[in-house]
Amino acid sequence: MQPKILIIGTGGTIAGMADDAENPGQYRAAQLSVAALLAGVSGIETAAAGPLDAMQIAQIDSKDMSDEVWHALLQACDAAMRDEAVRGVVITHGTDTLEETAWFLHCVLGRLAKPVVLTCAMRPANALMPDGPQNLKDAVAAAAALDADGHPLLREVVAVTGGGELHSARWLQKVHPHRLLAFSSGEQGPLGWVDGTNVRLRQGYAPQAADTEGGYTGSAWLAALPAPASTPWPWVEIVTSHAGLRLGLLEALQAQGVEGLVVATTGNGTVHEALLDAMARARQHGLPVWRSSRCSDGVISDAVLPGMADLDKDLAVALTPYKCRVSLQLALVQARSKI
What are the Asparaginase/glutaminase C-terminal domain coordinates in residue numbering (predicted)? Predict the structure, then answer.
């Protein structure tokens, strides 16, 4: 039997319903199952160029995304990567935290032998002109796309977010609360576009080479990240440097047991003077404190992509504060488990 595209549902606006189709801004997210979404997309089997399957692992508004849902997604994606009957994964997701989920999966799944594509919508499913069906169809086409040698064209975590744009998990950001093209990759731009069943990559983008050693070998994070209900994942919070900042916030978080802090800095890594001493004291007490710019484009000039060895450093991180929080959480998990 021909391998299938697996669609994993988590809820979001793409599965939402408005009480009044002419007022789509007022709606309830996560009302339709992923199977119902698939049934409403004309020609999606053609886009898949083969069979489709669906599973529902959550039914939430993505503003409420949790470690528990991330853990379930990791398990489902890991199983799909190992399953020869699956040739690609599409995840339906809300827009609010899509960039964080995409970055989490990018970090914990590692090098992929087949694509993981997230997609979303800015309008509910029953709007007069919903954007979800086209986005879902485009995501399926991206997951099914093959290169000239018959290998999956995409071997990384990506997102189809509207207008056929295809974005890397590394750069993806939600940048607008209302418009249909609500996402951007900033200065990097999209990595490609979907036009019908044709997937066109940006000039100069080099897809990862197929793994000649047997493809995906499994995520080491499955053992390192236990079910959050039994063993909570490390608690990491974001503190923003801003005008009029008052003393005491970092100390209050420490008193509550926070395990790591990300400071969303102004400009090129600068921090309000009220925070500087508190950050230094926190590090002296063994609390990891990483810096990320709150600017929507660009990164701090000396920023790097972090790892476990950077827990005790005054580190500028080349990620948004939200993705930086995910990376610090995972670095703390690494330190616990020594993976």
Answer: 236-336
Domain span including residue 244: 234-337
Assess whether 13 carries a catalytic annotation: yes
3-state secondary structure 153-211: CCCCEEEECCCCEEEECCCCEECCCCCCCCEECHHHCCCEEEECCEEEECCCCCCCCCC
CATH number at residue 68: 3.40.50.1170
Nearest residue to 250 via CA among 101, 230, 241: 241
Q: What is the largest CA-CA distance in the chain?
A: 64
Active-site residue (options: 92, 95, 97, 161): 95
Which pLDDT tens digit goes with each residue over 77-127? 999 999 999 999 999 999 999 999 999 999 999 889 899 999 999 999 999
Q: Which tens digit of pLDDT belongs to each residue from 141-187?
A: 999 999 999 999 999 999 999 999 999 999 999 999 999 999 999 99
134 phi and psi angles, rounded to 5 deg:
-70, -40
Q: Are residues 159 and 40 in the same domain?
A: yes
